[in-house]
Design brief:
mainly alpha; transcription; TetR/AcrR family transcriptional regulator; DNA-binding
Length: 204
């Protein structure tokens, strides 16, 4: 399945720039997104406690650059999480505009959502910690992603492709439950199971 490339605006590394109304520099955005993509990739293979030097090597920068953008590991974890959520948010309308059918768009978006859930490897334990910085992440996740999933479902239902009584949060919970096995079994194919789930939604 092809990826939908999106640019996500997060903390720009220039304190006060957004508050002052100044636009973020394009190179600063690209550099930070490179760091976030590298961190996400390392988290998939090594978990959120992976050495910062591994993330720096993946991004092709020094560790000092990582710490300049993200002074603590919590800052980095939160930024990666939000970066991936926003990628899923922006992908929804893009997929509806480029896919052959709304159901195809829903299928492709579900694949991106599976990728997001799998790249949260190790994050669940961190979210259960007593670090107050993580408290708002679940609310952020729900508030940003449920409307996008609902838009895709409504488009597919309006096209007569799926049943009309499906709730977005219900579908996202179902996909999430199907991804649980990926944490402990490298041979577990969450994508295949989610594809079967979506096939079962088709209106016969």
């Amino acid at each position: 399945m092809s990826r939908v490339e999106v640019n996500v605006a997060v903390n720009d590394g220039e304190p006060g720039a957004e508050r002052a109304g100044r636009p973020r520099r394009a190179d600063a955005r690209r550099n930070e997104e490179t760091l976030l993509d590298a961190a996400a990739a390392v988290f998939v293979t090594s978990g959120v406690e992976a050495p910062i030097r591994d993330i720096a090597a993946k991004a092709g920068v020094g560790t000092a650059t990582i710490y300049r953008h993200f002074p603590t590991r919590a800052d980095l974890i939160i930024a990666v999480y939000r970066h991936q959520v926003e990628a899923c948010v922006e992908a929804g309308p893009a997929l509806l505009a480029t896919s052959a059918t709304p159901h195809a768009a829903l299928e492709r978006w579900a694949g991106l959502f599976v990728d997001f859930l799998v790249t949260k490897h190790g994050l669940a334990a961190v979210l259960r910690s007593d670090n107050g910085q993580f408290d708002a992440l679940h609310t952020y996740f729900v508030d940003r992603l449920v409307p996008v999933c609902a838009q895709l479902i409504q488009a597919a239902a309006a096209a007569g492709e799926i049943h009309t009584d499906l709730e977005a949060y219900e579908l996202m919970r179902g996909i999430g439950n199907l991804c649980i096995g990926a944490d402990s079994d490298p041979g577990y194919d969450a994508r295949r199971l989610v594809a079967l789930l979506l096939a079962g939604l088709r209106q016969l």
